[in-house]
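look at this:
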Amino acid sequence: MRQLTDGEFDVNTAVWSPDGKRITMLSNLDKDSDVPPAFYFRNIYILSPGGGEPELLWEGASWDIGTSWFGPSLIWSPDGKYLAFTGRVMGDLGHDIYKNIDLWVIPAEGGEPMNLIAAFDRTIRTYPGGPVWSSDSKTLYFLAPDRGAVNIYKVGLDTREVEPITEGKMTVGSFNVDKTGSTIAFNATDALTPSELWIKDEKSMRPVTEINKGLLKNLRLTEPEEFWLTTSEGVEVQGWIIKPYDFKEGKKYPMILGVHGGPHGMYGYVGLSEVEEEAQQGGGHVEPVVHE
């Protein structure tokens, strides 16, 4: 084992090229890259497995390139011709950090990035599963949140048309696609069920495990009820109410109001929900909401 980089900078992501001859990495080698505004910007570099100075492939001077805590958001196409990454163009740092994270592709030999989902008004989710290339390097699969759900979508490199792959009131986590593109394996959760393994193929979309069946037998859960409200500015905001397990009409109950930012960090169809989890673990401040 040997160290390939050295300096006062962080390497956020490092990935091998398909032929094993190069390594690409996301980083910022500029001075003071760990403080704003340089903190928000990452460049793409090419590194030799034998070491040496990183070669700048593309400078994202006005870009916030998204990196995932759980995996790379910079990935090579299987044919080695392209690099895909997630990020957003930054101008006003006070506002643009809240813009959608888009899916971009850049030629592996350098050039200008292409936004594949410019017409898709949703942000890319890079955790826990980043974008995935099809085996023929013509399609990218990715996760995106929408009104409490997180599903898998795909976009063609040439067509730039976004199509949903999974649909429903669920939150999809990590996923993978077989070489033919006809079968997708993923883990998913809904409002009442913790994550299970699912398969989608030409026959159907279905869960193939019941890992949490025993756990659920010992829990008293109430399904969150979705509602929408209109703010004083005329903006529609999504919310959920979780009533006590043995809720009785006409009886008054104490209520806890939990406000969550969004839509990028939304509450949604996740079992157990954060409120339910805290209640099951004995969080006294939410117990009156969920339990009797």
Observations:
- The two ends are 57 Å apart (CA to CA).
- Residues 11-213 form a domain with the Neuraminidase fold (CATH 2.120.10.30).
- The chain has a mean pLDDT of 86.
- The CA atoms of residues 278 and 284 lie 8 Å apart.
